[in-house]
C-alpha cells in the first residue's frame, strides 16, 4: 500500500486491575470491535501527548502516560496504520468514563474481540498479573 501509515496513539489505561475499553461505533472502520481510547496523532504530537488528549476527548477522563508498549504496524483494507500503545494511569478524581467506554477486569478483557492489530498488546496484558 502506498503512502505513509496513519499514526495512531492509544491509551491503555489501567486502574486497580481494570482496563478502560469501549466499542467502535457502527459508522467507524472496524465497527463493533472493542477498543482502547485513541486516535490519530496531530502534527508535532508525541504518542504520549496524543494518547492523553484522545483519552480526555473520548472518555472525559484525565490520565497521565507512564510507559510505552511496542508499536505495531498493520495493513487493514481501509489503510495502513502504526499503532503506538501508551500505558496510562488515572490523573484526575473522576473515574467513570463516558459511554461507550467502561472498566473491564482482566478476565473480561480476554472475552473482548479487538481488531487484529491489537493482538500483541492484548497478549501482553493477559500474560501480566
Uncertain ranges = none
Total beta-strand segments: 8
Query: Count of helical segments?
Result: 3
Strand content: 35-45%
Mean pLDDT: 94
Q: Strand-and-helix sequence, N→C?
A: EEEEHEEEEHH
Instruction: Tell me the major beta sheet.
Output: 8 strands, mixed
CA-CA gap between termini: 38 Å
Radius of gyration: 14 Å
Shape verdict: globular
Helical amount: 10-25%
Question: Which structural class is indicated by helix and strand composition?
Answer: alpha+beta
Textual characterization of the structure:
- It is a single chain.
- The protein has 129 residues and is α+β, with helices and mostly antiparallel strands.
- Helices cover 22% and strands 37% of the residues.
- It has helices spanning 47-59, 106-111, 119-127; strands spanning 6-15, 18-23, 34-35, 38-40, 63-68, 72-76, 79-90, 102-105.
- Strands 1, 2, 3, 4, 5, 6, 7 and 8 form an eight-stranded mixed β-sheet that branches.
- Strand 1 (6-15) and strand 2 form a beta hairpin.
- The longest helix has 13 residues, at 47-59.
- It is globular, with a radius of gyration of 14 Å.
- The termini are far apart.
- The mean pLDDT is 94.
Comma- or semicolon-separated keywords:
alpha+beta, 37% strand, globular
Condensed summary:
By secondary structure, this protein is of the alpha+beta class. It has helices at residues 47-59, 106-111, 119-127; strands at 6-15, 18-23, 34-35, 38-40, 63-68, 72-76, 79-90, 102-105.
Please describe the topology of this protein.
Blueprint: E1 6-15, E2 18-23, E3 34-35, E4 38-40, H1 47-59, E5 63-68, E6 72-76, E7 79-90, E8 102-105, H2 106-111, H3 119-127
Parallel strand pairs: 1-7
Antiparallel strand pairs: 1-2, 1-4, 2-3, 2-8, 5-7, 6-7
Amino acid at each position: 500500500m502506498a503512502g505513509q501509515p496513519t499514526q495512531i496513539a492509544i491509551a491503555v489505561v489501567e486502574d486497580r486491575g481494570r482496563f478502560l475499553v469501549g466499542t467502535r461505533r457502527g459508522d467507524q472502520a472496524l465497527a463493533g470491535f472493542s477498543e482502547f481510547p485513541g486516535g490519530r496523532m496531530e502534527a508535532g504530537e508525541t504518542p504520549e501527548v496524543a494518547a492523553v488528549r484522545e483519552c480526555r476527548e473520548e472518555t472525559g477522563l484525565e490520565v497521565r502516560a507512564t510507559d510505552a508498549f511496542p508499536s505495531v504496524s498493520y495493513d487493514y483494507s481501509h489503510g495502513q496504520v502504526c499503532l503506538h500503545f501508551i500505558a496510562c494511569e488515572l490523573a484526575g478524581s473522576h473515574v467513570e468514563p463516558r459511554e461507550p467506554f467502561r472498566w473491564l477486569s482482566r478476565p473480561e478483557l480476554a472475552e473482548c474481540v479487538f481488531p487484529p492489530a491489537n493482538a500483541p498488546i492484548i497478549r501482553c496484558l493477559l500474560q501480566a498479573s
